Amino acid sequence: MQTITINSSAPFFIVFNAGSGHDDAAETRTIIETVLTEAGREHHVMLVEDASQLPHISAQAVARAQAENGVVIAAGGDGTINAVAQAALGSGCPFGVLPQGTFNYFSRSHGIPSDTAEALRVLLNSHAYPVQIGLVNDKVFLVNASLGLYPKLLEEREAYKQSYGRNRLVAWWAGIMTLLHEHRPMRIHVEHGDQSYELRTLMVFASNNRLQLERIGFPEAKAVEQGLLVGTVLKPVATLTLLRLMLRGALGQLGEADHIASFAFRQITVMPALLYGRDRIKVAMDGEVTLLKAPLLFRVAPEELLLLKPEVTPGETPPDPDTL
After folding, report:
1. What's the pTM?
2. CATH number of domain containing 114
3. Which tens digit of pLDDT belongs to each residue from 312-324?
C-alpha cells in the first residue's frame, strides 16, 4: 500500500463541529488546543456552530491546507467527517479525523481511537494511506448510503437523541420504536453489470465499511478491502420479523437471514418508482439524510482519500481501538 510521509511542520486545519457527539464542546476544544500546543504543531480550529455552514467551512479548510501544504482534519461524528471528506476528495490534501460521534465506524475501522487526546497522538505520528470511498450520485459516503427504511430510522433516531441524549442505547431504542410502525415497500429497478431486476423492498443499503458489516454478520465484509462495495436488499416483511432481524443484527447473524439479500459490486444503478412526479428521494449517507435526484448511481469513487491513520502491515486490518 502506498504511503505518504507527513511533514512534521505541516499545519493542521481542524473543522470542529461543536454540536457532534455527547462531550462538552469547550472541553474537547481545550484538549485539542493543549495536545497540539504541547506537541509544537501549528493548528487552526475552524468552529462550526451552524450545521448549514459545514460544507462552506470544510471547503475553506481544504483551500487553506492546499495553500500551506497542510492537513485538513474533521472533528465530529460520521456526518461531519463525511462533509469534510467530500471537500477533501480529489484535493491532494491529507485528511485526518477526530471522532466525536456515537458509533464512529469509519475511524474505528482504520484504528483511530474515539478518545480525542489519543486520536490526536495518532495524527501527530501517522503516515497518509489511500482509502476507498463510496459515491452515490457523486456524493461521498465513507460508511454507508441507503434509501427506504433506514433514512426514516435515522430521522426518528435523531429526534430521540435530541430528547434523551446521544448514546448507543438511545440509538437502539429509537430503532425499535421505528420498526414498530407499518412500512410500505418500495418498487425499484436495479441495474448491476449487464443484468437488471425489478424488486419490492423495504430498504436498499450500500456499505463501504468492513467493521460494520462484520458486526452484523455479513460474509461479504472482506469485499470492501478488495475494492468493492456491499449491497443489501431487505425483502418486504411484517413488523415482528423486522424486530427479529434487528436482534439478529445485534447478535452478528443478519447475513444468515432469509429475508436479506446481499452482494458485492463496484457500481449499481437504482431507480425507485417515483410518486406524484417527484424526481428526488431521501437518501441517508453516513447518518445524514438528504434528497437526491433519481436514478441513484452507487459506485466506488475513482479517487482515494489520503487518510492519516496508524501504520499497519500490508494485508492486515487495523484492530478496532475501542475493543482493546
Report:
1. 0.85
2. 3.40.50.10330
3. 655 556 666 665 5
